[in-house]
Design a protein that fits this description.
The complex is a heterodimer of chains A (111) and B (110).
Chain A: E1 4-7, E2 10-13, E3 19-25, E4 31-37, E5 43-49, E6 56-57, E7 64-68, E8 74-78, E9 87-94, E10 101-102, E11 106-110
Parallel strand pairs in A: 2-11
Antiparallel strand pairs in A: 1-3, 3-8, 4-5, 4-9, 5-6, 7-8, 9-10, 9-11
Chain B: E1 9-13, E2 18-23, E3 31-38, E4 45-50, E5 53-56, E6 61-64, E7 70-75, E8 84-92, E9 104-109
Parallel strand pairs in B: 1-9
Antiparallel strand pairs in B: 2-7, 3-4, 3-8, 5-6, 6-7, 8-9
Classes of the chains: A mainly beta (111), B mainly beta (110).
């Protein structure tokens, strides 16, 4: 039972490049989330999906788009990466919002 | 959602009991209180959740006074492996958004 799987684990981009972070969960959870964590800071919610087919903005959605492909998968896309988006990105899932299960994170550097 | 306030950091020694308090003065009637633990280079991990009074599991205890404006996470007999950042979250049970604060960095010394 893998839980929440994120790919890739590391990525380096140049300013203006685009990329998609992938997230999949095998716990049959309805809700999925994307957070970012800057060095020494807490996590900030980017987007979330309460259920398959729905998405909504969190605290810091600018510069990002998301897709809830199916119940298992929730992707985060950076259309035109900026140095300010250098961060560690965490995907999480939950059932009835009671307990969040997190992936191991993607470390992204934008040069 | 209710804003939370926690100490930025705490130091302790192995074998001691550690209590981390979180203030949430604007907690709403339907809000639950949840604590997470995060090790470096890992995602946060759920520790415990409560609504009122006291909750205990195999890892920690959570004390919530009657007014629910604060809560205290209690870690019994900490070890070096408990060195981590601890986050207090307050959010509506059926609400979708969970906002993390800056957390409390616990440093356990030998």
């Amino acid at each position: 039972n893998a839980g929440v799987t994120q790919t890739p684990k590391f990525q380096v981009l140049k300013t203006g490049q685009s990329m998609t972070l992938q997230c999949a969960q095998d716990m049959n959870h309805n809700s999925m989330y994307w957070y970012r964590q800057d060095p020494g800071m807490g996590l900030r919610l980017i987007y979330y999906s309460a259920s398959e087919g729905t998405t909504d903005k969190g605290e810091v959605p600018n510069g990002y788009n998301v897709s809830r492909l199916n119940k298992r998968e929730f992707s985060l896309r950076l259309e035109s990466a900026a140095p300010s988006q250098t961060s560690v990105y965490f995907c999480a899932s939950s059932e009835r919002h009671e307990k969040l299960f997190f992936g191991s994170g993607t470390q992204l550097s934008v040069l | 959602l209710a804003k939370t306030t926690q100490p930025i950091s705490m130091d302790s020694y192995e074998g001691q009991e550690v209590n981390i308090t979180c203030s949430h003065n604007n907690i709403a009637t339907n809000d639950y209180i949840t604590w997470y633990q995060q090790f470096p280079s890992q995602g946060p991990r759920f520790i415990i959740q409560g609504y009122k009074t006291k909750v205990t599991n195999e890892v920690a205890s959570l004390f919530i006074p009657a007014d629910r404006k604060s809560s205290t996470l209690s870690l019994p007999r900490v070890s070096l492996s408990d060195t981590a950042v601890y986050y207090c979250l307050v959010g509506l049970y059926n609400f979708n958004k969970f906002y993390f604060g800056s957390g409390t960095k616990l440093n356990v010394k030998p």
